[in-house]
Design a protein that fits this description.
Layout (H helix, E strand, L loop, with lengths): L1 H23 L1 H23 L4 H19 L4 H4 L1 H18 L10 H4 L6 H31 L2 H8 L1 H25 L4 E5 L5 E6 H4 L6 E9 L6 E6 L10 E3 L1 E4 L6 H13 L4 E12 L4 E12 L9 E7 L1 H8 L6 H16 L6
Parallel strand pairs: 3-8
Antiparallel strand pairs: 1-2, 3-6, 4-5, 4-9, 7-8
């Protein structure tokens, strides 16, 4: 909501321009564009202490319809003015849709400081621009044909109201679609989004975190060793959508929103292995990235616990593996890539870490 408020002044000026242009004509729209652009340019300079070039270029763009109408009155160019302006709009949208321009630099100066887009969000915005580009290009071609070959009333409807109907319908469809998605997401588990030091920067549904968005979210892993330094592994349920049937770290799970690290570790350990009492040592943290997700992994070691009792749908079975068995299994594609990475990364610690506890 705060971000939307940051855009409100610019949106209001654009609405005023369209009202002036629609009811007063292109020339009145020209004067309105100059006046409104000047106001925003000066206000931005005073409030943000910058000369915002985007305001200047936007003002010039909105002046084009009036300039064409003023200097080509009665000519073919004047008649084609709506389609000509729309052609320029297609070019601008095409730049946003297909170039690698930084979209944040195109926002009002005061808004740039408040907004941060992830790679997934940027790709989503570009995808929206691409659809809008094809839609407006199609309408532009239709407008040229209508203005050249159709009766004036029909041509006027096609070149102006029809554009608003198409664009409005497109954004209404996006709005309804997003509402449906948000409604579905409310029923999901939401996870904290963090930076690489563990600081929380936001939150997102579990499905989004696992969709290839690469939103970094925190998880806990627990390695359990017996007196022979054998490592307990769990076999992932065949019902899992990710790596079913693979052998994995003894315990692994997400940290919930506002949940403490130790609380998440104990909760996941009980849910997956039925352990109610344990002593755990912190081994370290690292970022794990796969094709579907990015995780900030907090890894722990446990040598002392009350019992292991597996009774859930997430784990099919579990047992202790010797180091030789694990090394052999690595080459037989029996283990998850995440466990192999962590096993190699923490092997020396697993065998010689000092005792301590939560």
């Amino acid at each position: 909501m705060k971000s939307l408020k940051g855009l409100a002044p610019s949106i209001l000026l654009v609405i005023i321009y369209f009202i002036a242009e629609e009811f007063g004509g292109p020339v009145i729209g020209l004067y309105a564009a100059i006046a409104l652009g000047t106001i925003e340019f000066i206000v931005t300079r005073i409030r943000e202490n910058v000369w915002d070039k985007m305001v200047l270029w936007t003002t010039i763009f909105f002046c084009i319809p009036g300039a064409i109408a003023m200097y080509s009155e009665g000519s073919l160019l004047s008649r084609l003015q709506p389609a000509v302006v729309e052609t320029i709009l297609c070019i601008l949208i095409g730049i946003f849709a297909f170039s690698r321009i930084d979209l944040i630099t195109t926002l009002p100066a005061g808004y740039r400081k408040e907004v941060h887009f992830t790679k997934t969000q940027i790709e989503g915005i570009r995808r929206m621009f691409r659809i809008l580009f094809y839609l407006i290009c199609t309408h532009t071609l239709l407008s040229f044909a209508a203005l050249l070959f159709m009766p004036e009333k029909i041509a006027d409807f096609i070149s102006n109201p029809l554009l608003y109907i198409l664009v409005g319908g497109y954004f209404l469809t996006l709005f309804i679609r997003n509402k449906i998605i948000i409604h579905k997401m409310k029923k999901e588990e939401w996870l904290p989004i963090v930076n690489e030091t563990g600081g929380v920067t936001g939150k997102a549904p579990r499905s989004v975190c696992h969709s290839g968005s690469k939103l970094l979210h925190p998880v806990v892993h627990l390695h359990i060793l017996n007196k022979r330094n054998e490592v307990f592994l769990q076999k992932r349920s065949m019902k899992k959508d990710l790596l079913p049937g693979k052998w994995d770290t003894a315990v692994g799970g997400h940290i919930g929103i506002n949940e403490k690290l130790e609380t998440a570790l104990k909760r996941e350990t009980f849910e997956e292995l039925g352990i109610t009492n344990l002593e755990a040592q912190f081994l370290g943290s690292y970022v794990w990235e796969s094709s579907r997700e990015r995780e900030l992994v907090f890894s722990f070691l446990c040598r002392h616990y009350d019992h292991i009792h597996i009774d859930n749908d997430e784990v099919d079975e579990g047992r202790f593996w010797s180091i030789d068995e694990i090394n052999e299994a690595i080459h037989k594609d029996l283990l998850t890539p995440n466990f192999i990475h962590e096993y190699k990364l923490l092997l020396s610690k697993l065998l010689g870490h000092k005792k301590g506890g939560l």
